[in-house]
Amino acid sequence: MTTETTEAAMALSAEQRQGLLRQMILIRTFEEAILREYHADKGPGFDIGKGLIPGEMHLAAGQEPVAAGICAHLEQGDGLTAAHRPHHLAIAKGMNLRSLTGEIFGRESGLGRGRGGHMHLFDPSIHFSCSGIVAEGFPPALGQAFAFRNAGTNNIAVTVAGEGAANAGAFHESLNLAALWKLPVIFVIEDNDWGISVPRSSSTSVPSNAVRAAGYGIPGVRIEGNDVEAVYAAAAEAVARARAGEGPSLIEVHTLRLLGHFEGDAQGYRTDLATVPGEDPIPVYRQKLLDAGAVTEAEVAAMEDEARAQVEDAVEHAKNSPTPNPAEALKYVFVEGASS
Amino acid sequence: MSATTENTTAARTSLPLEPPAGTRRLNTAKALQEAIGSQMEQDPSVFVMGEDVGAYGGIFSSTTGLLEKFGPERIIDTPISESAFIGLGIGAAVEGMRPIVELMFVDFFGVCMDQIYNHMAKIHYESGGNVRVPMVLMTAVGGGYSDGAQHSQALWGTFAHLPGMKVVIPSNPYDAKGLMTAAIRSDDPVVYMFHKGVMGLAWMAKNKRSIGAVPEEDYEVPLGKAKVVREGTDVSIVTLSLSVHHSLDVAEKLADEGISVEVLDLRSLVPLDRETIIATASKTGKVIVVDEDYQSFGLSGEIAATIAEHSPTLLTHFSRVCMPDTPIPYAQELEYAVLPTATRIEAAVRKAVAA
Q1: At the top level of its lineage, which domain of life is listed (chain B) (predicted)?
Q2: Which residue in A121, A148, A171, A334 has the most chain B C-beta atoms within 10 A of its own C-beta, making it the best mutation to test that interface?
Q3: Residue to test with chain B: of A96, A130, A332, most B Cβ within 10 A
Q4: Which of B119, B124, B151, B195 is catalytic?
Q5: Would the pTM of this model clear 0.90, i.e. be above it?
């Protein structure tokens, strides 16, 4: 973090700070509800295919500062490609909670009418997509940026993935191409220290992925501390640069994975849990704003109530939505005609 | 079905490969270039991207002359970064453009297969029909010129096996233009595979049918419609791409001996025109599949299954002339031992007729 960006963060108004807190509270409230519903009926042991929400579930508790800090700068028309852990980014980008929840529950009301699932969320109204394959969400973001520039808008594309993705070929190909063509793309790495069970120190040759940006001649910044305002400040610079046609940037945020890689992950490999679990960024930020007089206890309580109401509405809506018709399982393979 | 005198006469006359279209003749490469250029003129959202598609004009001349016409903003050379630029095409298509992306050899697709089968092919389905990916991914296929195991494969069965993308393979200039026009206009992702041996390239052994009449105006050859390129009554050859020409050569030769061969050009594997396959099988009762792709678990098995599922007793003969399950060898003597050559096809037809 440069002094300049720290000052930019300091210049946030109380209203902007409340906005960041509100966003993080909404995300956490949503994911707590998903956590609850996911485990509600998984059987006496743990059966991944059982319950109202079947399949793998990757929650982002602890990583909210990335979503809130970056997306605070994005417009509806900007693109965002996320990875397999996408809910925090989807919500911060402005995804309709009912559509998101419907898809997670595999209902007809979901974004993909139950054909995508929680790792495959596509919402063209907010130019949002995600990929369940590590690092492979980067390349399509280049195309979004290319199309926006071609159309003469000043929209930009942001692409987010974990630190494990920064060792994959698609990441490096994408950085090179984006830099070469000065595409309006922002690459965001969420470094939560763990690629499933493998610590970053065992997978990555450099202590910071931000330095890799230099290899492609673009700015790279690493943010320590999981601080939403620091993310906000770094994103402000990168977004301005991209909108001005000056090309891509890389932002790495040292963040925190409070839960397992997936729900059901016992984390037997994680040696740091007892000693250094890190600090949950939401209570930390709430306390900071309370101390600064930027928000009152009553206002925080109101944010929490409002988030709970929104989330419960979405969950109820999903539960009450019809399941997809099995006779239509082949529908949407193609736009035109069938494959047989 | 027994051959009538009338049918025998018909079998001696090869059907035209294309409708009457004046006197202008193009090779397949030029027909392709014309389709792309014409669609680019009409639709500003169409652009071409890939390795050596600009000044070089495409390694197999798929884009020759387009850079001069449309400039580097729309005919775009890329780094050798297949995941990045194919993914770029996907993102651009999702945002409303119509990219034509070339990756020069199908053999190279392994380095970026994720973008193709997990992203390009699946986004429409995963989104419940809310997101379209109208892009064309084109590439060269096929062997016969000693380019070895990593530059000679057909592999169309691989792409046809993976749901969500259409797979189109022309055999001649007329179809090449009409199928490319339809592919660019399609709202679905299309993998468009042209065989180097049908392009009419100056530096490669030329097939006589790689140059043919091509109308100047735009037209579409619909995706998913096979074509009976030669009518016959004794045996059916179901095939595609360069093998269509080998099969026609054999059919013409054997016609002099009174053997009547019907040749079906599939033109696309996805969609597959099962109706026309069943029709030719019903007509002759004897089917040979000629396929330059690997034999096991591929197109030839699919054709057999299609016919058997329609009627297990329809055929009195079924055989395959395919690439055996081996990497494609380099030495000419070895390569031509495994390719579906006219010699192998002729032997198969004689065996079928005698059976």
Answers
A1: Bacteria
A2: A334
A3: A332
A4: B151
A5: yes
Mean pLDDT of B320-333: 97
Q: Is the pLDDT score of B280 beyond 90?
A: yes
Residue of A120, A122, A141 with shortest CB distance to B91: A141
The domain that holds A224 is classified in CATH as: 3.40.50.970
* Tally of CA atoms within 13 A in the half-sphere of A269 that contains its CB: 12
Residue B97 in this model has a pLDDT that exceeds 90: yes
What's the CATH fold of domain B23-213? Rossmann fold (3.40.50)
Residue A338 lies in a domain: no
Query: How many residue contacts between A and B have a Cβ separation below 8 Å?
Result: 168
Using the Cβ of B276 and the Cβ atoms of chain A, whether some distance falls under 8 Å is answered with no
- Whether B23-213 shares its CATH topology with B227-354 is answered yes
* Domain of A240, in residue numbers: 3-328
CA dihedral B338, B341, B345, B348 (to 10 degrees): -30
Cβ–Cβ under 8 Å, residues A99 and B130: no
Contacts of A77 in chain B (CB under 8 A): none
Structure tokens at A229: 């305002």
User: Model confidence over A145-175: pLDDT tens digits?
Assistant: 999 999 999 999 999 999 999 999 999 999 9
| B151 tagged catalytic | yes
Residue A142 included in any domain: yes
| Number of domains observed in the structure of chain A | 1
Decide if B225 contacts B273 (C-beta within 8 A): yes
**Contact (Cβ atoms closer than 8 angstroms) between residue A262 and residue A34:** no
Question: Phi and psi for B302 in degrees, rounded to 5?
Answer: -65, -40
Which of B181, B211, B207, B197 has the alpha carbon at shortest distance from B25?
Answer: B211
- CA of B78: which chain A residue's CA is closest? A177
Query: Can you give the residue ranges of every domain in chain B?
Result: 23-213, 227-354
CATH class of B227-354: alpha beta
Cα–Cα dist A127/A95, whole Å: 10
Residue A299 lies in a domain: yes
Judged by a CB distance cut-off of 8 A, whether residue A157 touches chain B is yes
For A333, the closest of B90, B118, B163 (CB atoms) is B163
> Do the chains contact at A142 and B88, CB–CB below 8 Å?
yes
Report whether B316 contacts B135 (CB < 8 A). no
Candidates A111, A200, A115; CA nearest to A162 is: A200
Ramachandran region of residue A62, left (φ > 0), alpha (ψ -120 to 50) or beta? left
Would you call B270 an interface residue with chain A, using a CB distance cutoff of 8 Å? yes
**A152 vs B: CB within 8 A:** no
Cβ atoms of B327 and B150 within 8 Å: the answer is no
**Is A334 within a domain?**
no
